[in-house]
């Protein structure tokens, strides 16, 4: 999954997108990727680099009522983007790739990626 995400390249991937019927998401954002986007855009999105996350059985909940609308794309729908409202602050608990419990507190763009990928697991996504 990590290889598929990086090859795409993308900042997140859910297992069902590549035919794996499991509740696993991977995500990663790098200074290099962020550098390709206009600075005012990444600033508005609150987009910052973060290390690779692999989350098994993720459970997401919102941490505040703050939301934002931004264009969002998906590796499963190449070339298509839509405006999606997302929570700005979320918490995700699950298991790491080696089976240890993990908790991710995310805000801004990372929170958006987490919501997008978790939606793929529940079939709620726009993709
Ligand atoms: Zn997607």
TrEMBL record:
Domain of life according to the entry: Eukaryota
Name the record gives this protein: Peptide deformylase
EC number from the UniProt entry: 3.5.1.88
InterPro entries: Peptide_deformylase, Peptide_deformylase_sf
Cellular localisation: Plastid, Chloroplast
GO cellular component assignments: chloroplast; mitochondrion
GO terms of biological process kind: translation
Top EC class for this record: hydrolase
Presence of keyword Acetylation: no
Bilayer-crossing regions: none
Broad class of where this protein is predominantly found: plastid
Function: Removes the formyl group from the N-terminal Met of newly synthesized proteins.
GO MF term list: metal ion binding; peptide deformylase activity
Similarity-based family: Belongs to the polypeptide deformylase family.
Coiled coil stretches, renumbered: none
Keywords: Chloroplast, Hydrolase, Metal-binding, Plastid, Protein biosynthesis, Transit peptide
Reactions catalysed, as given in the entry: N-terminal N-formyl-L-methionyl-[peptide] + H2O = N-terminal L-methionyl-[peptide] + formate
């Amino acid at each position: 999954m990590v290889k598929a995400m990086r090859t795409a390249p993308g900042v997140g991937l859910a297992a069902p997108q590549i035919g794996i019927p499991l509740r696993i998401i991977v995500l990663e954002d790098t200074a290099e990727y962020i550098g390709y986007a206009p600075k005012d855009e990444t600033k508005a999105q609150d987009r910052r680099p973060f290390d690779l996350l692999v989350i098994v059985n993720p459970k997401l909940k919102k941490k505040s009522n703050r939301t934002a609308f931004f264009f969002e794309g998906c590796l499963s729908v190449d070339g298509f983007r839509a405006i999606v409202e997302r929570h700005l602050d979320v918490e995700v608990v699950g298991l790491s790739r080696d089976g240890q419990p993990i908790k991710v507190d995310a805000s801004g763009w990372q929170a958006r990626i987490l919501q997008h990928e978790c939606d793929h697991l529940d079939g709620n996504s726009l993709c």
